[in-house]
Write a structure and sequence with these properties.
There is one protein chain. This protein is α/β, with parallel strands linked by helices. The protein has two domains: 35 residues, no CATH class; 99 residues, Metalloproteases ("zincins"), catalytic domain (Zincin-like), CATH 3.30.2010. It is 34% helix and 24% strand. The relative contact order is 0.14. The structure holds zinc ion. Zinc ion binds next to helix 2. InterPro entries: WLM_dom. Pfam families: WLM. This is WLM domain-containing protein.
C-alpha cells in the first residue's frame, strides 16, 4: 500500500521496494518491504536527527559562538503542551518528530532558537541578541505542521 509523507517541505510517495534500506529518489521514498509504520517513523526520526546535527555543525563551525560542553539532540513524539515543537532541557535540545515536515531552513531556525536559549531562558533582549549572533534572522517560527 502506497502512502504519502512530507520530508523537509517536500511531498513524497512512499513505495515498498526490494531495497534493504530506504532511499529517496526525486519525489519517491523507497522503503524495504519489511518496513512497517514503526520502522518508517524510526527512519524519519533518524533523518531529522541527521539534519539537526548537520545544521548544528555548520552553525558551530561558523565561529560565531563557542559552547563549552556538548549539546545533545533528542527527537520526541510530542510535548505535553501540543503547541510546543522544540525545547531546551539542560544541554539537550528536544525536537518534535513531525518537524521533519518543515523545510531545512525552518528546522535550522528552530535549532537557532533553542541554541539561543542556552544564553537566556526567556525571549528577552539577550535571547534575541544570541539568536541574531548565532545566525538566525529574527522571525516567527512556523507553527503549522
Ligand atoms: Zn523559546
Amino acid at each position: 500500500m502506497d502512502s504519502e509523507i512530507t520530508i523537509m517541505g517536500k511531498k513524497l510517495t512512499v513505495i515498498k521496494s526490494e531495497r534493504k534500506r530506504p532511499k529517496q529518489s526525486g519525489n519517491i521514498l523507497y522503503i524495504p518491504v519489511s518496513f512497517d509504520e514503526h520502522a518508517l517513523k524510526e527512519y524519519l526520526r533518524m533523518r531529522l536527527r541527521r539534519i539537526i546535527k548537520s545544521e548544528f555543525s555548520k552553525l558551530s563551525s561558523s565561529g560565531k559562538f563557542f559552547l563549552v560542553g556538548e549539546i545533545n539532540f533528542e527527537i520526541v513524539r510530542n510535548f505535553r503542551d501540543k503547541s510546543i515543537i522544540s525545547m531546551l532541557k539542560g544541554s539537550t535540545i528536544l525536537v518534535r518528530e513531525d518537524t521533519i515536515k518543515l523545510s531545512r531552513v525552518d528546522i535550522r531556525e528552530i535549532l537557532i532558537h533553542e541554541l539561543a536559549h542556552i544564553f537566556s531562558s526567556h525571549h528577552d533582549e539577550k535571547f534575541l541578541m544570541a539568536m541574531r549572533y548565532i545566525g538566525g534572522k529574527q522571525r516567527r517560527l512556523p507553527i503549522q505542521l
